[in-house]
Amino acid sequence: LEAEATALHLLALRMTQRPDPHLDLAALRGRAQAAAQALKDDAEVQRAWGLLLLAQRQGGDAEAVLERALALGPRDGRNLLAQAFWRAFDPAAQERLARQALALNPGLPAARMVLARALLKQGRPAEAAELFRQVLAADGDHAQALAGLASVEMDEPASQGQARTRFQKALQLDPQDTAALFNLALLLKRQGQAGEAEQELGRLLALDPGDAAAHNLRGQVLQEQKRYAQARESYLAATKADPRHAQAFFNLGALCASQLGDPACARGAFIRFLELEPSGPRTAKVREWLARQGQ
Known about the structure:
mainly alpha; about 300 residues
């Protein structure tokens, strides 16, 4: 069904922290709602309508519809997987439902992807990596599985080269995957490839100019290249995109206090940082610096 395919696409984007595309869903929503009202005993139609509601961030309405779909088709793993999407806020429940969906429908790659993401949220990267490998064994061009496996491999120095190759292949298949672009840029920064990291961040910010984390990372990359004025602009862009981005305020304060010699800039950034993060390993040094400035 068109409604289910569209909803799953939107939910998959959200699962990888990608911005929702601007789609005109009014006509599709109308058709799906009419079908759901006419075919109240059809599990597939109910599931499609419930997933579309969920994709449009109407979780309260989606819950009842998805429960109906499950009651109508309790042995269909796709109905359990729909429940797993709805419980994205609860990784343990999401894991349980995705495992049940796989037990009923072992050939459901989306269930492996949802399960892998749930495991990552619970700090179990090795188990998630195995699921990504299973998806890739069946479909070597599965862009999200490539990027997911690379996101695990990039944390191990021995596998960072393989991670870089996987990210690049994933981005050839899906050039708009902002999560993969961010992780590739972070990996390149770790490998000392600041110029290449900046290029990937430029691609990301062209797709999503309001990505505060990307602006912050770009600031760090520019700072490493001693391009301090540009780094300040990137940190400022991060704080404007997300006024609660504590790391960006800390980075801005540190840059202004040290490399730029701008105490007024540093004071403003550090005061805001302490409002957002009043305790922690960095706060003592920030408070000491402010005290020396008479704050």
